[in-house]
Write a structure and sequence with these properties.
CATH superfamily of the largest domain: Spore Coat Polysaccharide Biosynthesis Protein SpsA, Chain A
CATH architecture of the largest domain: Alpha-Beta Complex
Number of helices: 14
CATH topology of the largest domain: Spore Coat Polysaccharide Biosynthesis Protein SpsA, Chain A
Structural class: alpha/beta
Number of domains: 2
Helix content: 40-55%
Radius of gyration: 21 Å
Length: about 350
């Protein structure tokens, strides 16, 4: 037997799952992935120091699947460092970041293996938003495109088209389950310590690839089911959760693009689209019983989201400042009633709304 025969076969795809205290969900995630594994595909789980049953759950799965790697930190590392270490531990030519509470659709691994044969740098795949108990609700909007498209973000013409077509921050790599990338490109860019703790260090890493050319393919077909109402960053409340995205993406725009550039403008446009006035008014109602610091934070976020000069943004800012708490409550109740009538709100969302202070 030759020495070459003893070598492990090359890994084409590493499914990289950073996790923290999602032992309740990660078993279901792995059950959706492991039956799809073939030669050349591995799963890498990085446990960021969980204090729940995650270690026991992973131990049982490891006994069943040799292609599953499980690594555990002794202390909590935070999502930015955990994500970076998960990819560092991976051996695949491509890495697919994946959340530890979402589900992979049947056939998704085979489809990704087919796609990466094109050799591009990044692939953005579609997803389906579900309730917390995984009942499908709707396709998550990413781009203003209904078919597959390829862009080289290193070329200004392509970059302009890509940014113009973006509908949500998922187009700008925010949701890890939608991002598949060439590991060699990732490894060539070090972890940006300035973005560690922001939740967006992975986005900063990808943005830094753009000047050297970044070939991105948009795949509108949903490859996964995203579990809603299970946001692990809600521990400090809704307003501070909003700040993670609003401040984070404004900072990304300011860091990597000129203030008046079309790139920065479209990033701010997408952020504003994700936080329309009724969402900010809902936060105002929720925050009516919050401390002064959170109420001031929300006012600052509204000014930031609707900062670009336009009549509409002036109207939004003025409406937010002027709307009395009683009107806000009536608007929120009306939206909630309409959502319930259309069966678009999950049971957990309804229970959460009922628990919020009036």
């Amino acid at each position: 037997m030759t020495a070459e025969a003893n070598l492990d076969p090359p890994i084409t795809l590493s499914i990289c799952i950073p996790t923290y205290n999602f032992g309740e969900f990660i078993g279901e995630t792995l059950e959706s992935i492991l039956p799809q594994l073939v030669d050349g595909v591995e799963v890498v789980v990085l446990d960021g120091g969980s204090t729940d049953e995650t270690q026991a759950v992973l131990g049982a799965f490891q006994a069943r699947c040799a292609a599953l790697q499980y690594h555990r930190r002794d202390e909590r590392g935070g999502i930015d460092r955990d994500m970076a270490l998960t990819v560092e531990l991976a051996r695949g030519k491509y890495c697919w970041l994946f959340s530890s509470d979402d589900l992979m659709k049947p056939g998704a691994v085979a489809q990704v293996l087919k796609e990466v044969q094109s050799g591009l740098d990044v692939y953005i795949c579609g997803l389906t938003i579900c309730t917390c108990d995984m009942r499908p609700l709707k396709a998550h909007p990413i781009m203003r495109l209904s078919s597959e498209a390829t862009f080289d973000l290193g070329r200004e013409e392509d970059r302009r088209a890509y940014f113009e077509h973006a509908k949500t921050t998922t187009a700008f790599f925010s949701f890890l389950g939608s991002v598949i990338f060439k590991k060699a490109r990732w490894d060539a860019i070090p972890l940006d310590e300035h973005f560690v703790g922001s939740c967006w260090a992975h986005v900063a890493r990808i943005f830094r690839m753009i000047p050297a050319g970044l070939r991105v393919r948009y795949l509108p077909e949903p490859y996964l089911l995203k579990r809603a109402d299970n946001d692990s960053f809600m521990d400090k409340g809704l307003i501070r959760r909003f700040a993670i995205t609003i401040d984070g993406y404004h900072r990304l725009a300011h860091t990597f693009f000129e203030e008046g550039s079309f790139e920065a403008l479209h990033i701010r446009r997408v952020v504003a689209a994700e936080f329309p006035p009724y969402v900010m008014l809902y936060a105002k109602w929720i925050g009516s019983g919050a401390d002064l610091e959170d109420r001031l934070l929300l006012e600052r976020l509204v000014e930031a989201v609707y900062r670009d000069p336009s009549f509409r943004n002036r109207l939004y800012r003025g409406a937010f400042r002027a709307a009395p708490a009683s009107l806000v409550r009536a608007l929120v109740d009306g939206v909630a009633a309409g959502a319930r009538a259309g069966r678009r709100v999950s049971p957990r969302s309804e229970r959460r709304a009922e628990r919020e202070p009036a």
